[in-house]
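Quick log. Single chain, no ligands specified.
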Amino acid sequence: MPGIFVKTAPSGERLDQEVAGLRWLAEAEEAGGTRIVRVLGLAPTRLELEYVAEVAATRESARRFGASLTRTHAAGAGWFGCPPEDWPGGDTIGRSRQPFILDAADAPATWGRFYADWRIAVFTRRLRDGGLIDAAEARTYDRLCDRLRAGEFDVPQPALVEGAVARVHGDLWAGNVLWTGEATGAALIDPLARGDHAESDLGMLALFGLAHLSEVYAAYDEVSPLADGWRDRLSLHALSPLMFHALLFGGGYGAQALSVARSYA
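-> predicted structure:
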């Protein structure tokens, strides 16, 4: 019997949403997608997951992870901002309260409009309402949203993604990548899974650092070539998580997020 890791629900967090995300991402494993931690049991405030024994990261495991992540993204999604299939309900997820688009009829046709209206503008309002940015700083984010809506940062998905929308983990920072040494190099936990641009996961990987990140990127780009200029967009894709961290923790995250916004506005 596998070991068990028990997770209890913080206030306001729905564990059934996390389960839906894990199972949706795991559907890509048959096609070579990154391994997703197994759900062993669920109760309203208790989630039982398989225990994953971590090993030290190596260049080879990083390359396997990068290659397998292409297959996860290639599994696709219905529209930008869509929740996982078999969604248990709720129009936001996690402490970040990131909004989902529950009906395809409400979904924007482009990633830029999705990112502007359903991420950057949402967090800008929250920062402004919380007194964490002033009117002039809010206008920086507004200018970036204008460029996003105009399509200036819209590029094709990586080559293996058929259609406009990738299936992404959504919170792919280093702490949610467990190195295993197995066929896919790593196992993933704690998703905010949704339909999005695949580069959103790549940008999140860079935000807080990941072992052998250059190998992850190299293998990814070899298996599923990325659109030209992808490295220049990593910080843009990481901006929304930075803004959330500014809301939650304040301090230097706010200054860092504003600096990123200015570089693209």
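The radius of gyration is 18 Å.
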